From TrEMBL:
SUPFAM superfamilies: Acetyl-CoA synthetase-like. GO terms for molecular function: acetate-CoA ligase activity; AMP binding; ATP binding; metal ion binding. Acetylated. Deacetylation by the SIR2-homolog deacetylase activates the enzyme. This is Acetyl-coenzyme A synthetase. ATP binds at residues 392-394, 416-421, 508, 523, 534. Residues 89-474 form the AMP-dependent synthetase/ligase domain. It comes from Nitrosomonas halophila. Catalyzes the conversion of acetate into acetyl-CoA (AcCoA), an essential intermediate at the junction of anabolic and catabolic pathways. AcsA undergoes a two-step reaction. In the first half reaction, AcsA combines acetate with ATP to form acetyl-adenylate (AcAMP) intermediate. In the second half reaction, it can then transfer the acetyl group from AcAMP to the sulfhydryl group of CoA, forming the product AcCoA. The keyword Metal-binding applies. It is an enzyme of class 6 (ligase). The modification N6-acetyllysine is found at residue 620. CDD domains: ACS. It catalyses: acetate + ATP + CoA = acetyl-CoA + AMP + diphosphate.
Amino acid sequence: MATIESILHETRVFSPSAEFAKRANISGMAAYQALCDEAKSDYAGFWGRLARDHINWHKPFTRVLDESNAPFYKWFDDGELNVSWNCLDRHLATQGDKTAIIFESDEGEITHCSYRELHEQVCQFANGLKSLGVKQGDRVVIYMPMRIEAVIAMQACARIGAIHSVVFGGFSAKSVHERIVDAGASVVITADEQTRGGKHHALKATVDEAMSMGNTDLVRAVVVYRHTGTDIGWQPGRDKWWHELVEGQASECEPVWVNAEHPLFTLYTSGSTGKPKGVQHATAGYLLGVMTSMHWIFDYQPDDIFWCTADVGWITGHSYVTYGPLAMGATQVIFEGVPTYPDAGRFWKIVQDHKVTTFYTAPTAIRSLMKLGPDLPQQYDLSSLRLLGSVGEPINPEAWMWYYTEVGQSRCPVVDTWWQTETGCHMIAPAPGAVPLKPGSCTLPLPGIDAAVVDEAGHEVEPGYGGFLVIKRPFPSQLRTLWNDPERFKRAYFPHDIGGGRYYLAGDSAHCDKDGYFWIMGRADDVLNVSGHRLGTMEIESALVAHPYVTEAAVVGRPHEVKGETIVAFVVLKNKLPQGDQVAEITATLRDWVAKEIGPIARPEEIRFGENLPKTRSGKIMRRLLRALAKGEEITQDTSTLENPAILEQLKQPAP
Ligand code: 6R9
């Protein structure tokens, strides 16, 4: 495999302040190293100790890891527990009146919900589900707005051992249908509408449409939460109002104690092609992963006000809204709306109003807020913040620096957390009281996580060389299988040719630097090969974004007879779209800039400008679409999940 030396040349390093380190859960590099050493010397002992420290077991486990049917690993598999009990009941005696959730609606209405109140509502709803005949192992599809009730629905499923499958509220009827059918769901939970940025979007009508697409006979009931009160269609017998379902239900509900390996949920995520994959997580290993990462990476302290901006429709919302913060007994903010409504100061106002200490969001949000209001953070009191986090895609050093200096006022560590739907929790991320930060790097693996960069034969590559990101040993929070598709699970994640079927293949390309820091270059399928040189799209994008004209950039490869591939860049400028002669002028400037920043091999062949880039609703740039556009192909793929379909027309036009 042809590799070239790393061309990212970020050299800034930010060490934790003595004050931060002193109070941190992992205080100093020696403490981090001690945990890594503990895992290395006794892997099962390490995870077993953590599982006893963090989780309350109904029946203690005696076995830690069972590898006999690899890669279908089992963890703690003779133990019994309940996740909802761990998230709610165990806090009641000591802190029942503590606020569990500070909810802020799209329009700014605020609701506080204590652990006691949340427990009561989860129990009542769980009893309601039981009255519909939902039992352990049944599948429940949840298609809800980002409100407390979404968390209640998920926790109620966990309480009775039902397997939830949350579908993000922005997905189409076709996607909802696909998931209902694939999961074999018996109940769907939804709301009349959701509100985001002052706009209303139908949910119940979308479920009705999905239900009319066939093969949905298993669905016995559609539970509807009344949110906006708009008129909706109603199918008597099948449809039930949430408030009527919980009316008169007991406020206690004995949890169903499940085996550690009982599936907690499935969550569909897109694969490289075709049908979405139903990623299946187990109960105990997943809970342990979200708790250890809350403790180590978010450095959770009892007086924190934690805010993860992700929707519960994504894994980030599962792990760091529904489960992680509640398992720790934290107070967290849940926000229904969008960062730019009523204006680009909304996030900063929420931080100020609720005295948020820990703020976790995505690079795409950071970049757009940086563009819309670079000075806005200074107009708010952000002094409550002590820790910032980033997730979802590589964060370019420029956005990282703005986040660090303008939002965190150079006081708060930025934890860039690399992980996936499949890993359940953070895998590579800095323990903020120990690991010095480098902007653009997710730094070092969590203790116990054996991450490496390997070539096509599974051999570790030298520092500075790119390769496939793998995790060499099984870890508790990893997916157990793909729902209904164990063969695809094996093929996609444990391919025989890399590591002999023993390594978890993440699907990302990365490299390590001489300090062992990981730099994610993007999905492995985004790696370009230009004249035999391997280049990460991320590296070129990062260079483009470093130019003062540019806000955002996405780079794809276009097949080329001689060079193998050439580089096409899609660029959003800080100013408005260039016109006439400006186009050629700015194109030349940026091409030369990249050539200077990285090397002539990285010079884009073509640059197209748009007001925006095509993104999924979770903010990921859809490079597959861009590749098709670059090749001049007609778009035949489903674009219903795009945030902004209109942008495709603009980007279709080849540069003059
Ligand atoms: C949690 C989540 C997973 C993919 C992953 C990678 C990208 C996530 C990242 C990152 C660089 C980070 N990704 N975090 N890339 N740095 N800190 O996003 O899960 O939606 O399954 O996406 O996202 O490419 O493979 P998911």
